[in-house]
Amino acid sequence: MIRNMNLSEARRESIEPGGYVCRVISTNVDEKYDRLQLQVDVTEGQNAGYFTRLNERYNFWGLTANLYMDEKSAWKFANAIDAFRNSNPDFTWNDDGENDEKTLVGKYIGVIAQRKHYLANDGTKKSKLQVYRLVPVDVIRENAFDVPEDLYADELKNSAPVSGDVVDMSLPQGFMESADEMPF
């Protein structure tokens, strides 16, 4: 007789580029880069809670939206705030005054995510999911968006296609033997 191997815990969970209804879990103002960072997690569908589970296992938040606060990026910031307004009827934001970024915690937002391929510090090819655009949640629910093409770091543009040595975006349900196996 084969002993119980807990195969349900060994299954891998993965997340792909696409559109997701998300909720802001936490915020941080990064003064060094003059940006507002929003840690978001999926709230609907089969991937609901994916990034919370990733964080619980690896102490790493896997999806952060960066809203830069410089003058040339103000239009992108304004578009993101409008997406929050359209997604959360109770949300208020003073466009011409100071605001508390913590008011975004718990708010819903549509996230269009793309895969970014890059060279790690050790020279290996890796990939990660990153926020491409913030949109109203209705855009995601109505599937009224295009999935962006993968983004390649400059070093990878003219190299051979990224192959099996790219880090898998799936979340192992078991344990890891080393930090090199982390899925991001």
List the helices and strands and how they pair.
Elements: H1 7-10, E1 18-30, E2 35-42, H2 50-58, E3 64-68, H3 74-87, E4 108-119, E5 125-135, H4 137-141, E6 151-152, H5 154-157
Parallel strand pairs: 4-6
Antiparallel strand pairs: 1-2, 1-4, 2-3, 4-5
What does this 3D model show about the protein?
- Strands 1, 2, 3, 4, 5 and 6 form a six-stranded mixed β-sheet that branches.
- This protein has helices spanning 7-10, 50-58, 74-87, 137-141, 154-157, and strands at residues 18-30, 35-42, 64-68, 108-119, 125-135, 151-152.
- Residues 160-184 have low confidence and may be disordered.
- It is built from five helices and six strands, in the order αββαβαββαβα.
- It has 184 residues and is an alpha+beta fold.
- 24% of the residues are buried.
- It is globular.
- Helices cover 20% and strands 28% of the residues.
- It has a domain at 16-114 and 129-146.
